[in-house]
Amino acid sequence: MLSIRNLEASYGRIQALHGVDIDVEAGEIVTLIGANGAGKTTLLMTLCGKPRAGKGSITFEGEDITRLPTYQIVRRGIAHAPEGRRIFPRMSVLENLQMGAVTVDPKYFADDLDRVLTLFPRLKERIGQRGGTLSGGEQQMLAIGRALMSRPRLLLLDEPSLGLAPLVVRQIFDIIRDINRQQKVTVFLVEQNAFHALKLAHRAYVMVNGRIAMSGSGAELLADAGVRAAYLEGGHEAPPPRPAPEAAP
Amino acid sequence: MASRLASKSPAATLVKDSAAAALVAALLALPLLGFRMTDTARGLVLDYRFPLVLWSAGVVFAGRLLFTLAGAAIGRRLAARPPRAAARRWPLSGGRGRALAGWAMVGFALVLPLTPFGDRNLVDKATLLLIYIMLGWGLNIVVGLAGLLDLGYVAFYAVGAYSYALLSQAFGLSFWLCLPIAGLMAATFGMVLGFPVLRLRGDYLAIVTLGFGEIIRVVLLNWQSLTGGPDGVYDIKRPSFFGLPFSAFAPEGHQTFAQFFGLAYSPNQRIYFLYYLILILALATNLFTLRIRRLPIGRAWEALREDEIACRSLGINPTKTKLSAFAIGAMFAGFAGSFFATRQGFISPESFTFIESAIILSIVVLGGMGSQVGIVLAAVLLVGLPEWFRDLQLYRMLAFGGAMVLIMLWRPRGLLAHRDPTILLADHPAPSPADPTAPSEVSP
Lengths: 249, 444
Ligand SMILES: Nc1ncnc2c1ncn2[C@@H]1O[C@H](COP(=O)(O)OP(=O)(O)OP(=O)(O)O)[C@@H](O)[C@H]1O
Ligand SMILES: [Mg+2]
Description:
The complex is a heterodimer of chains A (249) and B (444). Chain A is of the alpha/beta class and 249 residues long. Chain A has helices at 40-47, 70-75, 93-100, 109-119, 121-125, 136-148, 166-182, 194-200, 218-223, 225-231, and strands at residues 2-11, 14-24, 29-34, 55-60, 63-64, 78-81, 154-158, 186-191, 203-208, 211-217. Chain B has helices spanning 2-5, 10-34, 50-80, 83-86, 95-111, 120-145, 154-171, 175-194, 202-222, 224-227, 257-260, 268-292, 296-306, 308-313, 318-344, 354-367, 372-388, 395-410, and strands at residues 35-40, 43-48, 240-241, 244-245. Chains A and B meet through helix 2, helix 3 and helix 6 of A and helix 13 and helix 14 of B.
């Protein structure tokens, strides 16, 4: 569905991605984990056309989207819930969801809204509230819900667990699984929270300094000693069920 | 200030604070008031007026003292008030109340010329006020909705005014034909300005638009052959009522407005007609804004103001969105400009200086960035009141500045900062909005 080949991207003279290869097949949840500053956000942003890929290619459903402007990429069926949620703070929850549907035929709006509100009953309770006054977890739900309103076939999520309490993190990850299974949306998930992400994902990649260092099924990486040492609480034998505390970037 | 008062010896701090203010005042007053050149028979003589310097220091000392004490007293009073009362809503902040206030204003504006105090002078001033309200509503699309800080809005007003003036003179076109052309011209200029500044935001955008506004004025000033330069354009065709002129005598073979309707001629008729004309134009601007906020393009403007990156990742084309905001905002300035030209009968670059842009922007900001009723209130405050108090001469501007400072202290986010959602679910009405200056907390 999505294939990234030898992708390079840089900010001015600083190169952030050095030849990245990633494949995402339809129906999968694929996760990308890595330390702070590894280039995960950069990869998602490059997928969306900003910054531009310096070298390499991005193909989505057989079409080369490497040079398309961002708004065109999104219209191909890719939704991006960017890092830090970026909801519209002065607009109501409903208006935020409505903004997610700008590229979609209005006749689907009522149904899609229903589906998203069923997925996030919390948002239904707060439908008229201003986005900026939602709690962090609710804002994350809104960001995901807003992305779903564009009827994507591929959903890009950038650190949905950022700054959330363990219980809410688990809730969000359950919902991501539901989105993937019930709504048949392919998910590409970027995470710091390696334990939860690897447990959820069918396949996973590890990024180190702008390169893919390792890849495999979620279970394989979860069992890998190197991965455990680097990303799972300093290599405890059995990863405790609670996620590592997040460091805000 | 209040916290400092609460420190160890409040009286001493207070006196020290006031003394410092007095010292500053004295230092400033020394060169400004302390010396004066007088022209006497013996030539220029330097006068010393040191008592005046002392006086001003004394006044500042006392003023500062009183101000601080009053501030502390008000602070105590507010703190003592029960919390419920403190959180009471500003009467116009709710959607219902605001709509009601809006309709009341429209009703009042419609009957104003018929009321006993609606004399010629007042209606004329109300016309001027309505021009500013219309300009405020137009700029609100750019600044309030799309969040693009535009300091050169008056340029589009000028484009509209000159378009009408020159077109009607060169081709004898009527006002109603020129109106859309003037709007179109202004919108085109809006796009032309929009292109180079698309990547800019905030301060940088403000600087470039400021420059653009000045460029237009300087071009008008120097393009003698077309615009008449500093002399401006004279004898601009006055408006007619569907071809019926508002004059005492009609040209050969025509009728005047008064003759056609069998009325006695009165110069007031034109004034009243102009008033209703601008009222219609302004209301059309308002109606347009209210409608477009509910359409995808209007929502995209507001979303763009909130977060450009999020907009892009939702499939919105920011280039198109920004350009359309610039163009449509400019179009309304163009309409207002051609009205201005037909009302004045004479225009020159002097009417389109930066201060006009500044006043219009102040109206939008004081009104509460995006609030239609707020803009009316701010226009009344900033344009209406100074007009009525013209007799006070120079103090007018002092009061203007003072009012501005007070409003920003009292309502830092504008008179009516609350924003109504453009869409509600039937079974989930919006929760009643809390005080806009203090967003309500939400339990997680
Ligand atoms: N706009 C930018 N300009 C310059 N350098 C940038 C910019 N954005 C990111 N970088 C740099 O690119 C590198 C990769 O950053 P990126 O945001 O992709 O990391 P990340 O893997 O998402 O990290 P985190 O997990 O902390 O979010 C970092 O070294 C960062 O400093
Ligand atoms: Mg990141």
